Amino acid sequence: MDIDEDKIDEAALALMYLTLHDHVRAWKQIDWEVTNRLYEKGLICDPVGKAKSVVLTDEGLKKSEALFHKLFVKK
Q1: Which residues are in the DUF6429 domain (predicted)?
Q2: pLDDT tens digit string along 17-75?
Q3: Which residue segment(s) compose the domain that 39 sits in?
């Protein structure tokens, strides 16, 4: 099966919007490969560490909210 990793990353980032706390932190419940790609794209800070959450960058926060509305909000 040929998986579109960009679509997976977008869905994961959109779901992070659901778990936001402290305005910029999201729970780290997403697959490590996905979080690593989001980090490489500059959307989250380095996910490696003992923290149970990850910090979204300014760009990541904006994109997370936009993708959440695009993918999950009824029109």
Answers
A1: 4-74
A2: 999 999 999 998 889 999 999 999 999 999 998 999 999 999 999 999 999 999 999 98
A3: 5-72
